[in-house]
Amino acid sequence: PGVHSDRQHRNFPADLLKSQQGQGICSLKRGVVMIKFGTGGWRAIIGEEFTKENIQKLALAMSLKIKAEHVENKPVVIGYDRRFLSKEAVIWSCEIFGQQGIKVLFVDRSSPTPLIMFYVTKHDLSYGMMVTASHNPAIYNGIKVFTKGGRDADEHQTADIERYLEQADKLYVPDPEENGQMPPHAYQELVKNGQVVEMNPMNEYLDNIISLINLDAIRERDLRIAIDPMYGVSLTALCTILSIARCTVETINSQHDTLFGGKMPAPTENTLRNLQNYVLDRYCDIGIATDGDADRLGVIDDKGHYLHANTILVMLYYYLLKYRGWRGPAVRNLSTTHVLDKVAESFGQKCYEVPVGFKYISAKMQETDAIIGGESSGGLTVKGHIHGKDGIYAASLLVEMMAVSGKKLSEIAGDIRKEYGEIHMEERACRFTAEEKERIHKTLMMDQALPEIPFEIDHVSYMDGCKVYLKNGGWVSARFSGTEPLLRIFCEMETEHEAVQVCEIFEEYLH
Q1: What does the angle CA 214 – CA 217 – CA 218 come to, to the nearest 5 degrees?
Q2: Each residue of 371-381: pLDDT tens digit?
Q3: Cβ within 8 Å of residue 376, ≥6 positions away
Q4: Which runs of E-coded beta strand occur in 98-257?
Q5: pLDDT value, residue 28
Q6: Model confidence at 367: pLDDT above 60
Q7: Are 44 and 50 in contact (CB under 8 A)?
Q8: Phi, psi at residue 152, to the nearest 5°?
Q9: Are 267 and 237 in contact (CB under 8 A)?
Q10: pTM as predicted
Q11: C-alpha span between 223 and 301 (Å, rounded)
């Protein structure tokens, strides 16, 4: 199909698909699908694989899937972040959806990913999409797909989409009349005839979070909060919530910069140095940072210390159990701290371990009626909101925790260390070539060979990569990233020296 309005309602009968097999109607080779989904959706380098053609092929694949499932009567909601070509990617997708007769609700300003997940849930939609590469470097962009209930598309759904991509590859015909105008004439026509509806559901999303947070308690504390959206999309949401709670809010790195200030838009200890200094210089109670699409969180405490995502997850679970009086299990992925297990056990609860990928966390939470789920990379969710990561809600809940407990973040973290012990996690990320990946995979997963480590092994799991559980309570895991060409090694031990030692042993062995 083309993208102009005179062809926008053309459908694809099965015999058309059959008749076009083998014909050279697109630039990609037959049988080669460039779009592959990882743990966080499809991500690719801009101009290499993240192109207008591939974006429209994905939209066509989604259209075919939606029609095959007979849910074309429901609209698809699509949002975008501040990355280069994000808004254009939505417009290019709208052209295909509109031409296929599928209505699109276009959130027409840069927005947090959790807002799209919330909208899918609240309005009982079958599908939503978000143009983002989350915390990846600035040269990347991508698309996340959400299914009914506002969940990340699981591996069965993404495998299904990839099968429809094979059909879309055969059916896609670039528009020979495209003149580069943005927005194109075809898109403008779709807006005029109501096939694309430009909208902004931010108020609905914010009202839901506000209803879940104890704003009265926060108002009584007169907190000073520094926000670092990392040039991303969280500023409006966080400022609105915290201003309503009568907090003094100050911001850094809030302007639109598609290069993210030359740093990774991931809230890590290395990327939040400026926020640490700001918190100390301005005597802030907390510094809050979110990644590029606001589904992950980074925190600086009142003493300027970076709080690891593991610490944040443990603190919030502890708060829900002790101060809110909630009861229920927790869910974490296999690369996340086992201190969460200790907290659960101390309150008579259970902690479940799942593979990396938030879809596994949300699925296990639903299965076990868990009250919190999270991962060491900074994503977490709490029961009663959405079935996915939300850095904005998590930040709001942290501020509530400070207000209700009457304690500073550093004091709460100290209390937890005293009660559950000191634990250190070491992380390594190693790049590899295709040949090295094959060799490492064979060593770890097929031969199941392990290096010599100076600690007694309890058991080994191959649920997702390789994870070695030690009898002293420590552990080490090695797995390939689902979003970048990296081998990630995590180790948690009682001392920093031991964690570094085991990480280095694994790193040297696999290289």
Answers
A1: 90
A2: 999 999 888 99
A3: 308, 309, 310, 313, 333, 335, 336, 337, 425, 427, 490
A4: 104-107, 127-131, 140-147, 151-152, 196-199, 224-228, 248-251
A5: 40
A6: yes
A7: yes
A8: -60, 135
A9: no
A10: 0.88
A11: 13
